[in-house]
TrEMBL record:
Its EC number is 2.7.1.-. One of its GO terms (molecular function) is glucokinase activity. Pathway: Carbohydrate degradation; glycolysis; D-glyceraldehyde 3-phosphate and glycerone phosphate from D-glucose: step 1/4; Carbohydrate metabolism; hexose metabolism. GO terms for cellular component: cytosol; mitochondrion. InterPro entries: ATPase_NBD (IPR043129), Hexokinase (IPR001312), Hexokinase_C (IPR022673), Hexokinase_N (IPR022672). Residues 5-168 form the Hexokinase N-terminal domain. This is Phosphotransferase. One of its GO terms (biological process) is intracellular glucose homeostasis. PROSITE patterns: HEXOKINASE_2. Belongs to the hexokinase family.
């Protein structure tokens, strides 16, 4: 990967969680499809996460491509509603302001632990006036407009949140990968390996690299005509090519394009091309997943989905081929994601069995990995294939459910205004 176009962003952080954090902290996680509000009561070294509560809110599509104030007003309002439901088992120490970690999972130029400017939008968002703006300042203004008295203590993205959350529970976590609407990864690197870093060296001798791997591109990537067309017609042509090969936002769309070609060139669904098959993004990844996992003898689920979503009446042979298309596209994606993880392990020289490093853990967050079982299994088996039998025993891939949210709350706690006061 080193020779290819891969932008590395270095994440700031005054310190990382060490387990001593205490008190009530919030997180706001804006990932792509939904955003999550979360609160955790941290109980220090012994009790860790005493209690947590979360809500998930889907973002109305018009707000993804509208104005900046509209999006942030909506988020601030939903956050205020969530804060209003805080029960008695959560305790904010007297005189303290509520603080939260803001997980904003888009490429950002981070200027301090709690500020950063947006470089570009991805994953279906496109609000031009936000480019170059400080996302924390925009959110803070929206909270003021809504009368919500809260402070952003840390700005992170989902990879950094997942890594911090993962390490809080397990010291052997060395990397975090997001497989959700989009895809990205972060890992822990020795500062000596980061010539780009000009600032003070952290005492630990380590830093976190947010790879922004969704934007990885190489001429070796196996791009088909469908990938090229999907990219050309997307909101961000030429960008996020790796992400567009397998993340949740795009898998279904690749399948749709392949089926459309079969319909047009081989009358796969009969003489007429089904009209609905021409609608971009009509076939969502969860539907592809449901069809792919259909174990019934006459593929009832496939038949039902084709009928419901595309208006297609299908024979059993047609259904079988549809499943095969889902299989080819999903397996390609899972294998590419596994190759990305293997690249991190190789960079860190953790890809070979070693007595000094008996355990290496990768924390993965995202609904694609969590719910798409075949994708998950193929990713793990491919990683095993790349590592070989001996080394794969020491590599553990672990689901970090809502890791990005918990991690952001932890980072808020570690970087709280009140720490050390
Ligand atoms: P985000 O990346 O926005 O934080 P999530 O981790 O919730 O979001 O992932 C959302 C993505 O996961 C969606 O784009 C969807 O394609 C995919 N997804 C959700 N449920 C499933 C499922 N059952 N099977 C496959 N993919 C799913
Ligand atoms: Mg997420």
């Amino acid at each position: 990967m080193a020779a290819a176009r891969l932008r590395c962003l270095i994440s700031y952080g005054r310190s990382s969680p060490n387990g001593n954090e205490e008190g009530l902290f919030y997180a706001l996680d804006l990932g792509g499809t939904n955003f999550r509000c979360l609160r955790v009561q941290l109980g220090g070294k012994e009790r860790r996460v005493v209690k947590r509560e979360a809500v998930e809110i889907s973002i109305p599509p018009h707000l993804m491509v509208g104005g900046s104030d509209e999006l942030f007003d909506f988020i601030a309002e939903e956050l205020a509603k969530f804060v209003a439901t805080e029960g008695e088992d959560f305790h904010l120490s007297e005189g303290r302001q509520r603080e939260f970690g803001f997980t904003f999972s888009f490429p950002v130029r981070q200027t301090s632990i709690a500020s950063g400017t947006l470089i570009k939008w991805t994953k279906g968002f496109n609000i031009d006036e936000m480019l170059g703006q400080d996302v924390v300042a925009e959110l803070t203004k929206a909270m003021e407009r809504k009368g919500l008295d809260m402070r952003v203590a840390a700005l992170v993205n989902d990879t950094i949140g997942t890594l911090a959350g993962g390490r809080y529970h397990d010291d052997d976590v060395i990397a975090a990968v997001i497989l959700g609407t989009g895809s990205n990864a972060a890992y822990v690197e020795s500062v000596l390996a980061i010539p780009k870093w000009q600032g003070l060296l952290p005492k630990s001798g380590e830093m976190v690299i947010n790879m922004e791997w969704g934007n990885f591109f190489s001429s070796h990537l196996p791009l088909t005509e469908h990938d090229h067309a999907l990219d050309a017609e997307s909101l961000n042509p030429g960008e996020q090519i790796f992400e567009k090969l397998f993340s949740g936002m795009y898998l279904g769309e690749i399948v749709r394009r392949a089926l459309l070609q079969m319909a047009e060139e081989a009358a796969f669904f009969g003489d007429a091309v089904p009209l609905k098959l021409r609608v971009p993004y009509v076939l969502r990844t969860p539907v592809v997943s449901a069809m792919h996992h259909d174990m019934s003898s006459n593929l009832n689920i496939v038949g039902k989905k084709l009928e419901e979503i595309l208006g297609i009446t299908s024979s059993i042979d047609t259904r079988k081929l549809v499943v095969e298309v889902c299989d080819i596209i999903t397996k390609r994606g899972a294998r590419l994601a596994a190759a990305g993880i293997f690249a991190i392990l190789k960079k860190l020289e953790r890809h070979k069995a070693s007595v000094d490093k008996p355990r290496t853990v990768i924390a993965i967050d995202g609904a694609l990995f969590e719910h798409y079982t075949i994708f998950n299994k193929v990713l793990q088996s491919t990683l095993g294939e790349l590592l070989g039998e001996e080394a794969s025993d020491s590599i553990i891939v672990k689901l970090a459910h809502d890791g990005s949210g918990i991690g952001a709350a932890l980072l808020a706690a570690t970087n709280s205004h009140h720490i050390g006061l």
